[in-house]
Structure formats: structure tokens, C-alpha cells
Amino acid sequence: xxxxxxxxxxxxxxxVDPMKRLLDIxxxxxxxxxxxxxxxxxxxxxxxxxxxxxxxxxxxxNAVHIDGKEVMTSEGIAQEPLGxxxxxxxxxxxxVQCGFCFPGFFVTSxxxxxxxxxxxxxxxxxxxxxxxCRCTGYQKIFESVMLACKRK
Length: 152
Fold this sequence. Notes:
This protein is of the alpha+beta class and 152 residues long.
């Protein structure tokens, strides 16, 4: 099946099996390796991308569901002014340790700051609850998102 979609603000086409996962399309067909595979079951959030502006776990989205849609990955978001602000905030608070979960947290944080952006620890915790980190204990991640909300 040939699918056409917008990837990080660029129109793309690819011939794929309609059941191929978005995660695999990004990593194998477009070499966008920021989107990580961890659980493969939509539980950890490491593979989070934006699909038509909403966070989704790309390991659970098949090719047939992205035809004609818009996908933003961590690589695309990093080029946005708000993405750059978030990177600075994560860096300033030392929120990243091993870095494996960072792309998923980054994408989800971007969506939160862009669409809600309320400086509420409870709302930030809820917004990021679909992402798992095994290294940080989360507090520094929450602090970085709070900082981005203040600076936005």
C-alpha cells in the first residue's frame, strides 16, 4: 500500500504493508531513530509521537491509519521554537539521565505546554502519566515542564 502523509512538516510517500507499525515506518523507512521502542504494547510512552497534533504511542498505530495525516516526531519538534525552549529547560534542570525515555517525554511535554501550559504540578503529572522513566524519579522532568510553562 502506498501511503502519503506529512512528516515533520514535509509531505512524504512510502510503500508499506498496511499493518506495519508507525514506529517501524519512522525508524526503518525514514531513519528517524529518536522514536524509541521499549515495550511494544503502548504502556511505556517511549515511542510517543504527535498524530494530527495529539500524542499517540506509535507502536500501536498501523500504516493504514496515517495515510493523509500529520506526524510530528521528536526530531521535528526539536526544530520548533517551543521545542528548543523545552530542550533548554530539560537541560537546565538536569532532567535527562540515560535518555532512552526522553523523546517520549519530550513529545508529550511539548503537547502539554503548547495546548494547556498551565503551571500546575498535578496537571503536568497527569499529562505525562503515559510515559515511564526508570532513572530519574520524575521530579526533574516535572520541574522542566513547569519551567517551560513559565517561560512560554
